[in-house]
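[step 3/7] inverse_fold.run input=structure_tokens len=337
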């Protein structure tokens, strides 16, 4: 970087030192002048774009968080065309969604900070510019889903949208003390401003309307998002569901009377999901919707519409509710022993 700037300085110094004409008023250097201007332009562009590895590491919005466990959420995956206007642009074990509305892009979640450059590269690989991203929606304010939002919002200029409670967490860069996973959740880069969205609210951009569905439990502010995706005259309702798995730090008991409200949130969210129009289900973690198997089928047959599954949200809700009930029963057994 220093060498590039020094070269620019020498170039500009040469530029101002060359006389415009000889003593008779004749121009002496038309070719040299054009070459110098071109060279200066190239060097200035290099100086503007140059960034050393150290500079990248020192970007506070891109610093790695989550330790070794976060490595699983940054394994590269090329963009995956789900259906119609919907793409996956994240990683093998952490999904980020892109929706092309015809008037700009909507992105859902952003993964961890250290993966943002890969997400941005996937956006560009589809032929879009970062400035095409108009909104970034968040399913939950845990670092693995929302840790990269601050950087992606800065780089795109997009408006960030989340539920009221998730917005508070995103803006403060850490989670509430009563989160079941408190103690294992690292802080993450804070987002400067988050637009609040209520349950049942709508966001319209281009030809796409996205609906917000409050699905708390995994976090108090978890929000799932639904829209319609069309291709070849066929349309399907799509849902990007927030996590609804009942996981926690060691020692936390969902069966504790003090946590009854959390259990009730889960149960209401399962009912919410069962009622949602949903034929294509996506979620942050592919394991929650058999994403790896669906992707394998899609690669084997690109025309298979592999992600479509009637009653997908009901299947997901039933599976997560079974996990919750099993967890509650096991806690009772453990306590009695």
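[step 3/7] decode complete -> sequence:
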């Amino acid at each position: 970087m220093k060498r590039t700037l020094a070269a620019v300085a020498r170039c500009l110094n040469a530029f101002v030192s060359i006389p415009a004409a000889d003593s008779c008023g004749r121009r002496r250097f038309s070719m040299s002048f054009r070459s110098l201007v071109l060279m200066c332009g190239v060097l200035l562009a290099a100086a503007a774009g140059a960034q050393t590895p150290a500079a990248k590491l020192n970007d506070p919005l891109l610093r790695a968080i989550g330790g070794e466990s976060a490595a699983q959420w940054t394994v590269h995956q090329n963009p995956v065309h789900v259906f119609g206007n919907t793409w996956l642009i994240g990683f093998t074990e952490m999904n980020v969604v892109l929706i092309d509305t015809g008037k700009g892009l909507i992105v859902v979640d952003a993964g961890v900070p250290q993966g943002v450059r890969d997400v941005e590269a996937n956006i560009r690989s589809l032929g879009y510019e970062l400035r095409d991203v108009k909104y970034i929606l968040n399913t939950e304010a845990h670092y693995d889903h929302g840790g990269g939002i601050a950087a992606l919002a800065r780089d795109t200029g997009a408006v960030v949208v989340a539920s009221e409670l998730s917005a508070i967490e995103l803006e403060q860069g850490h989670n509430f003390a009563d989160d079941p996973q408190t103690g294992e959740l690292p802080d993450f880069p804070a987002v400067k401003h988050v637009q609040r969205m209520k349950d049942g609210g709508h966001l319209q951009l281009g030809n796409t309307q996205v609906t917000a569905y409050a699905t708390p439990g995994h976090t108090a502010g978890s929000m799932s998002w639904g829209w319609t995706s069309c291709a070849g005259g066929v349309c399907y309702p799509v849902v990007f569901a927030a996590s609804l798995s009942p996981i926690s730090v060691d020692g936390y008991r969902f069966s504790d009377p003090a946590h009854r409200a959390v259990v009730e949130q889960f149960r209401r969210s399962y009912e919410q999901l069962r009622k949602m129009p949903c034929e294509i289900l996506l979620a942050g973690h592919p394991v929650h919707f058999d994403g790896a198997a669906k992707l394998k089928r899609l690669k084997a047959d690109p025309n298979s519409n592999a992600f479509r599954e009637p009653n997908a949200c009901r299947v997901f809700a039933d599976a997560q509710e079974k996990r919750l009930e099993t967890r509650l029963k096991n806690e009772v057994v453990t306590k009695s022993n």
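[step 4/7] annotate
The first helix runs from residue 2 to 17.
The CA atoms of residues 316 and 323 lie 11 Å apart.
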